[in-house]
Amino acid sequence: MAIVPTRSHRYGLALLVAAAIAGCSSGGTDNTNPGTITLSVSPNNGTVQQGGQLTTVATLTRGGGFTGTVNLTVTGAPAGVTAQLSNVQTSGTTTTATVTIVVAGTTVAGVYQLVAHGTGTGVTEATANYTLTVTAAPAPAYTLTLSSATVSIVQGASTPTINVTLARTNFTGNVTFSVDNLPTGVTAAFVPNNTATSASVLTLTVAGTAVPGATNLTVRGAATGLTDRTAPLALTVTAPAPSFTLSLTQATLSIAQGASTPTTTVNINRTNFPGDVALSVLNLPTGVTASFAPANPQTTSSSVLTLTVAPGAPTGTFTNLSVQGVGTPGTVSTPLSLTITAGVPAGNFTLSTTPATAVGVTQGANVNVTVNINRTGGNTSDIALTATGTLPTGMTLAFLPTSTTGASSVLTVTTTGATPVGATPIVIHGNTASLGEQTVNLTINVSAPGGSGNVTLSFATCTTDNKAAWVAFMNGTSGTWTAVTGTADVYNFNITQSKGSIAYVTLGTGSSVITVLHFTQAELIAGTLNFCAAPTPGNTYNGTVANFPGGFQGRVTYGGGTANVLGNGAFQITNALLGAFPLIGYAWPLGTGGGDRVFIQRDEDPSNGGSFSSAVDFQHATKSASATIGAGTLTGLAGTETQIFHQMTYYTGGNACTPSLLYFLRATAASFSFYGVPASLRVAGDVHSISISAISGPTSFRILTENFVDITTRALTPFVLPAPLPVPVVSDAGGPYKRLMVVATGVSAEYNISHTMTYVDQTAPGKSGVVTASQGWVGGANVTLVLPDFTGVGTFNAAWAPATGDGLAWFLSSSGGTFTNVCTDGQRFLIATRSGSLP
């Protein structure tokens, strides 16, 4: 025997349980003895809270040989109550099943008399009563507690994290946290905040300028429709304990007998301690004395140490010396090593430089400095010259000669174009046997050859592989290219003529890209030319899909991030922006049919790693609808197209013009259907953007992109493809490397924005280049783009360009239209390309 749940519409109630109960044999009912049935439920009553469920066991017993079908129904249930059968078991003439009664949160509280009816052909109806009591769910509420009610933080530090815990009762909404009565210099951060979870972590950060003392804070939780919850938090800001440490500018000294050391500085690093520090040197060898200036520093942060070695002091290296400081916080020390060499001979020397004190050098150039050896007392010893200091990238120092018995040596300072602009201090050292070391200080000032100007190029936000390794410009449309170096990856130069050009090279691992840009002066000086956008924040969000149509494919977009979906269930969007954006879902058939569905939930704002507030429900009563269908007409076809397709993007103008790709690569013809968001889901500022691509074999294609608001209205006007590009003449302009030149004659005037030639080296992988000219720079219908000859322009390396024998794949594209703002109705953008190869 088996019980098979079915749906009955006889009574029109919210709770309907119907079952067919068949006999144990295939024979019919004995008409002379129709038999009997009885029905019972155990228990026969139950109490459940709104939104809950309970179970009872229904038992059906046949008698008198009855084996026919029995239909079960239930009456008397209130709205929002449903039931499900499970665990159906039959033993002999008795069949039992578990009945799960599910009560919706909207069901009205009360006591309800439910009646289960069993009916079958030829038998008397059997019934069983069940009393259902529905009680009201508790009101939404929550409590807020802290893992610690007191915290003490030192100035300039952050608190160990404080856990904030929410105990929720019938409440799943977002809670926003804040801290009341924060003193000046103290900030609070919750992770996460505005959260539907039951936990957050509070971090208090205390600035070094915050005033020490105790403050009673209040941690507050705010949720829509509920009274704020609070928890007290006692904060004590303390000053760091007084302390100090010592360090030496030179911890290893060498002094000849009868001489004094070149001074070394004792640095006193103070923390909340302005008092006296008594300085001394421990474990001095016999005949060595120490003096400090000042000897007992008070509020100062340094003292100059001088060691004097008597003529009879023992020679050797002494590594157990230490400089000791005694102050109120305690006693500290730092190690010092002293080497005593043999006595000083007659005579001595000092060092000076010409020019004195400082010297200037331009990036990519070199400069000579004379190091003067000023001898006294008949000194003729061989003086060895060295230099110390932290040298920037590309700077080198060389002495000629490196040691001399004469009166001078020449120091050559060499820089490259990559050497940063700025001042570099160095120390020049002179050493000879039995004499103390002599030094002279010199500052090397590096300047940029480009200087300031009306054009600014910035690679400051670029990754390492996208920063320029070489930059040059040309003032006018012909003449000399001039290399320019920048400061912190920003380059400045002057374009005084009506047109000008920029060139730069980026280098990656085993790759080089040469980029050339030709613009009008007005285009060049309109603002800083930023070649790299700020990095994508990379936020991640989680969600679910419901009621996804069978046989469809789809995508969900939010804040610039996208997830592809093929059915119901979880999805994750990565690399999205943080903030409030629409959550948009779109589903379209896997074949060529229609029936597209659109879902839009406005102003979602989950935290990074959080979840969306609702599912992407493609059957939602108000947030989802059938896509609007437009019957499009396409003109301007050349008859050589091998593929035509279109895709649709939707921009939500109320959210910083955020794009959402609805669908892509749909087959298109002279007459075609296109789809978009119906008026019921749109808001002011939303714009559709269709892109139609027509491909003519492997060497040519055209793209038309148009913006419009309403699908139906736009379908009344044909879409017009732009004219194809003329077939260009492609050659090598000649020179020290292969210089691709592309000449296109009679380019349509509708391509009024720019023209670009791109090449990819087929012989030497990794080499490529781009030459772009604005239509303002071209000035007419004939376009000539060529890779310039940069030989001798700064540090340009011909190895970055294709070798004369390399084969190149080339691409020519032209663009035009009125595309000034992607979220403006009526905007139109055109692009056409040609491609080929040059052996």
Task: Give me some keywords for this one.
839 residues, mainly beta, Immunoglobulin-like, 12-stranded mixed beta sheet, 6-stranded mixed beta sheet, 55% strand, flat
* Gap between N and C termini: 82 Å
What would CATH call the class of the largest domain? Mainly Beta
CATH architecture of the largest domain: Sandwich
Q: Compute the number of helices.
A: 3
Characterize the overall form: flat
Question: In brief, what are we looking at here?
Answer:
Helices cover 1% and strands 55% of the residues. The protein is built from 3 helices and 64 strands. The protein is flat, with a radius of gyration of 42 Å.
Task: Describe this structure as you would to a colleague.
The chain has 839 residues and is an all-beta fold. The protein has six domains: 3-135, Immunoglobulin-like, CATH 2.60.40; 141-238, Immunoglobulins (Immunoglobulin-like, Sandwich), CATH 2.60.40.10; 243-341, Sandwich (Immunoglobulin-like), CATH 2.60.40.10; 349-447, Immunoglobulin-like, CATH 2.60.40.3450; 449-535 and 722-839, Sandwich (Immunoglobulin-like), CATH 2.60.40; 539-720, no CATH class. The protein contains three helices and 64 strands. It has a twelve-stranded mixed sheet. It has a six-stranded mixed sheet with strand order 1-2-6-9-10-4, with no helix packed on it. Strand 37 and strand 38 (482-483) form a beta hairpin. The two termini are 82 Å apart. The model is unreliable at 1-31 (pLDDT under 50).
